[in-house]
Amino acid sequence: MTDEQIDQDTTPESTTVGTDSLHADETASPQYGPQYGVGPFSIREVALVGIWVVAFIVSFFSVTTLRFDSVWTSGLLWILTIAVPTAAVFLIVLRRLSPDGIRRVGSLGIDQFASVAFTVSAVLWIQLVWETVAIVVDGGPWVRSWVMWVELVLMLAGVALTVFGPVIPPFEEDFQGRREVPAHRSARPIRPVVARPAPVARPATADDAVAPGAHAASAAFADAAESDTIAIDRSAGAFEPATADSDEPWTPASTRGTYEPVQGTGSQPAVSHQAFWALAPVERDVVDAQGATLFRIGPSAWALVIEDRGDSFVVRHEDGTVGYLHDVSGITRG
Q: Which intervals of the chain are annotated as region Disordered (predicted)?
C-alpha cells in the first residue's frame, strides 16, 4: 500500500463541509460519548496552544545575565528549543482547521511528532540548567536568567500533554474513540530476517577436466573443415559437399611458399577451395547467381573468401550470406 493510498484510507468518511468534517472523529466509535472543547479544539489542544504562546513570548528575553542573548541570537539553539515545538503546535491547529491537510511528518503522526518536539526541547533546557548549576558548583557566577527555568517548566508541561496525555484525565478523551487506520510503512511491524541459503556445490564432470580453450579450438577446427569441403555447382550456383567419388584430379590451392594459384591441366581455370581473407581496395558489389547485389565489401573490413575461381571469388558475409565477387583486381590476400 502506497502513502497516497494510506492518505485516502485515513480521510474522514464524511464529505460534508463545516462542523461535520471538523468533528468526523466524534462519530467514529459509538461506545464513547461526544468530546467537548473550545470551538473546534479539544481541552488538551487549547492547553498545549496556551503553553506554546507563553514559551514563544518568553523566548525573546535574554537567557544569560552577562549580556542580552536570547535563544534566537544564540546560534542554532532556537531550532530545537522553540522552533520545532512551534511547528508541532502549528500542525495540531492545522489538523483541526483543515482535516484534509498534513496528516504526518515522515512516518510520525502529528501527535507523535509533537511528543518528540516537546521532549527534545525539554532535554535541551535541562542541559542548560545542568551547565548553569555545574558552573555555580565550581565557584563560578550564575550565568543564566529566569528564562531558562520558565522555558523548562513550560516544555515539561508540553511533554505531559503530548507524551502522557493518553493517561491523564481529562486529556485522555482526546485519544479515545479514534478510528483505526492503516499505519505508515515505517511504523508497521518489521519483517523477519532469514539466513541466506548457502550455494550448492556442483559435482565435477568430465567436461570440467578439459582445458578452457579446448571447446573453442574444436569449434574453430570444425568450421574450417566444413569450409574446406564445400564444392560449387557451376551450372546451378548451389553448394554441394565434396565427395571422394569426384572425377576431377585434386590440385593444391597454391604453390609452396607463395599465394599464386596452381594452373590446372584442363581447359578450366584452377579452382581453390582454400579459404582466406581478402581486402578490396574500393567498395565492390557481391552478387548472387542472377547478378543481384547481396552486399558490398571494401577497404574498411576484411571479407572471407571460401573459394577462388581465378576470375571471381565466392565470398561469405558475416550473416552467412554467400555471393560472387567478379572484380578481383587489386585484392589483398590475408
A: 1-31
